[in-house]
Amino acid sequence: EAQVTQNPRYLITVTGKKLTVTCSQNMNHEYMSWYRQDPGLGLRQIYYSMNVEVTDKGDVPEGYKVSRKEKRNFPLILESPSPNQTSLYFCASSSRRTGVNTGELFFGEGSRLTVL
Amino acid sequence: AQSVAQPEDQVNVAEGNPLTVKCTYSVSGNPYLFWYVQYPNRGLQFLLKYITGDNLVKGSYGFEAEFNKSQTSFHLKKPSALVSDSALYFCAVREPGDYKLSFGAGTTVTVRA
Description:
The structure holds 2 protein chains of 2 kinds. Chain A is mainly β. Helices cover about 0% and strands about 50% of the residues of chain A. Helix content of chain B is about 0%, strand content about 50%. The interface of A and B includes residues 33, 58, 96 and 106 of A.
């Protein structure tokens, strides 16, 4: 089954304690992206990756890091989490192949993070 | 820069009545437009998209959307709403050649029995 898998789904942590949210897709997609969802603001892009070892900042990258060492994985790293990073996070992927890519994103189930 | 506006935070309709969720967009070129739906505690699910061609696009679960270039709108519609359509709906836009999807703030749809 084609899917994007995020872990953990729920996490409560404290300020300053490093954490990683993993994301894996099994569709051989080149493009992967992280969004955060906050009430009234919709989804805002944090980082994206066009392919292995190619990453770039989205609209709200401050406080986050990413890496893309393998095509299927795109972890989101919070080096020193703060309360304003309490949010619902989504990983998404898309194909870049000519004739296939029309920008449709496939989303994971989300990771709800609370930073105390 | 591309952007999307969903002017209504909430839409309430009775079951069996028509449902419309509004979306307007702003892009510098021809838009690729999308609708997604989010059920409680779930990720976003793709509903439909407009890339080119017929202005009326049909999607999943009986939804359709009409692309109107002159009004820069892409409203989502369903002729007869179901209670199970109650969810959060997002409109999104991207420009050809760009992979970033820009989302609206979302519209909460409540269908009462």
